[in-house]
Amino acid sequence: MSSWIRNRVLSLSSDDSSDVDPNTISQRNSAGTSVHMGSASQVEVTHGTGRDEGLINIQVPKSFAENAAMKSLDALRKDLLDATEDLRRSQDKIQELHAELKIVKDSIAQNHKHEETMKEKLAEYETRISEAEKTIQELREGTTQNETSSGAPPQNGREKLKAKMIELPAFKGYRIQRGNLKAVSFIKMDSCFQMGWERDFEEKLNNAWASSANGTRGLKKFLYFPGLTFFVNEQHAITIAPKTQKNSKHNFSLLSSLDEMYGEERELFIDRDTAQSPSVNVFYAGRYRVVRLNDSHLKSVGYTNSFNREFGFQLHHIIPIVVGAQTQKPLLREDEIRKLVASGDIKLEFIGLQCVGFERELYHAVTTTTPITVPKAEPQSEAKRQREDDSISAKAAGGSSSSHGRPKKKKQKRV
């Protein structure tokens, strides 16, 4: 222990050569009680006795103690300066982090504000789009409420039918616009003028429906009037059919299949695009309700050329439904039916078709089944039929038909 103290004292005294001379340091043996380090420094180390036996007493000159204390203070000052500098750098770093955190918070707040602004703009755009669609719908429908409220009659049959149909509510749910419809893949329009086409249509429709995921929900009842559907606006349409009637003069009786369908809802198929022009394709238009038009002028009308001009209803498209409506034998021949329709002896009625739904699964089923191959129709057959219609209509207007609707035989000149 005394040896360590001696070395420590030498270490301290080596920093101040003016106070301690190592050559004058002396030491007692290990059992001694003091260490004399020369007269210059007067450093004395003694062991305590008695109660202080475990203590060591060191006596140094005042100048030596002051020098040692000053050096210790200088070291402490240096350590304090270093710690102060470290603290300053840490505080600067903390301030930088606080500044960055503030920037991040401000950025988050701006993003939230931008998000709210975008939501408001999106809602505003949706409102504008809805208003624009409503305006377009109103422009398409060409409202006639001012005319009806003032008591002014519609200008023609088309406007009268339009005024009746636009009073019906529109369907607000999901549906595909007619201009965006895909054609059904299981049948074409030309196939629907042959005998038994309704059964063929029904079988193919239900086969397509049965092959879909929801096809187990039962068979589908459908409506399709080949070439005889006219839309007064985007959703509502009209068709024409022979009314139930009995004519003793021309010896025929007709029963309309639509009499039992009024108020029913069925899946409607059409063959016209948005431009009202005929199409060889057939389209699923949605679920429609059969509506009776309570107007005596619309429930019993004779065919005129204006039907083709205003609605696109051609005479040769009406003949097949008259053939199917006959209940009295002998049945009329097609050429007789053509003349009786053209002359107005066979009465027709307009029927309303109101959109009440659109079955998306059915639309997908009938447009994704395996396409069919239909033989091409004879060239110019449609134009030829139209020329025949016009010719017969002109003759009927001139009163050239016989009492039974059969053409009169011309007397042969004798040679």
Outline the structure in words.
About 45% of the residues lie in helices and about 15% in strands. By secondary structure, the chain is α+β, with helices and mostly antiparallel strands. A six-stranded mixed beta sheet has the order 5-10-11-12-7-6, with helices on one face. Strands 1-2-3-4 form a four-stranded antiparallel beta sheet, with helices on one face. The protein has a two-stranded antiparallel ribbon with strand order 8-9. It is rod-shaped, with a radius of gyration of 54 Å. The protein starts with a helix and ends in an 18-residue tail after the last helix.
Name the structural class. alpha+beta
How large is the count of helical segments?
A: 11
- Spatially, the strands of the biggest sheet line up as 5-10-11-12-7-6
Number of domains: 2
Span between termini = 170 Å
Mean of pLDDT: 77
Structure summary, number of beta strands? 12
Low-confidence stretches: 16-41, 143-155, 399-415
Radius of gyration from the CA trace? 54 Å
Query: How much strand?
Result: 15-25%
Quick one: overall form? rod-shaped
- What are the secondary-structure elements, in order, as H or E? HEEEEHHHHEEEEEEEHHHHEHH
* Percent helix: 40-55%
Q: How would a textbook summarize the main sheet?
A: 6 strands, mixed
